[in-house]
Amino acid sequence: MNPTKTLVDVQDLTMRFGGLTALDRLDMTIREGEVLGLLGPNGSGKTTFFNVLTGLYKASEGAILYNGHDVIGKRPQEIYRSGVARTFQRSRLSLPLTVFDNIVIGDYQHMHHGLVFNLFRRKAFRAEYDAYVQKVRELLGIFSPPLVDRMFEPVETFTMIDRRRIEVCRALLSRPRLLLLDEPSAGMTHDETHALMGDILDVRSKLGNLTVVLIEHEMNVIERITDRCVVLNYGKKIAEGTYAHITSDPAVQTAYLGE
Ligand code: ADP
Predict the structure, then answer these.
(1) Which ligand 1 atom sits closest to the C-alpha of 50?
(2) 40: Cβ below 6 Å to ligand 1?
(3) Which CATH architecture has domain 1-75+211-259?
(4) Which intervals hold domain ABC transporter (predicted)?
(5) Tens digit of pLDDT for each residue in 67-80?
(6) What pLDDT digit, counting tens, does each position of 127-156 carry?
(7) ipTM reported for the complex, 2 dp
(8) SS3 for 24?
């Protein structure tokens, strides 16, 4: 890990939806190994940036160099395989399915072209299944040991914070180099949010080379866990720097804090 190395270099990135410009000639960098907070009022383009970086949307103009290669125009599976994983603001867990199924299903779909086709090749699947059990057990053991013994229980029996942990584990299964977290605190209490952030910092130190970008509204979370922040407003970057730096910036206070 090299903290001065640029892992992601965003150049002049523009994303338009019809007449609406969600990202407006955005330039920013994500450094290897950092926790970067992505801030800004609702509608400022934060989730759109994640969607473009993960290949869900194709940018209108500009480039996102990830490890030196432009991701624009690449398919989501390709970007995932190159080490970019994410969580979503709204839970994507299937509540009746087990923890194991929920963690594995996303990875399986990204690695193969369609779950059903492969499930029919049962012999091959058995070995893969066992390998997945091993991987999930190992990951839960690192991220959230109490969940190991419950990995075959349905997600609906878990608390909100455990469900969030399961979503983060799903994103971590591929052992990504870059983890994008879209408002993981949504719907959680203050204490739960802090516990989850502690887990994320902890897993980061255990897994080693992991860069994290966090969309988050709770300023005390941002202060506690980020190394640096980028603030967006109307799709443009209005500030960049440490938490102390951006919160003392008048442009940020006007746009984001409403002062
Ligand atoms: P944030 O995550 O900062 O709240 P978003 O990235 O979700 O902001 O949205 C930025 C702007 O882009 C908003 O005005 C939103 O309505 C618009 N937008 C986002 N996705 C789409 C889409 N798929 N189609 C049309 N407009 C969109």
Answers:
(1) 6
(2) yes
(3) 3-Layer(aba) Sandwich (3.40)
(4) 8-259
(5) 999 999 999 999 99
(6) 778 888 999 999 999 999 999 999 999 999
(7) 0.98
(8) strand
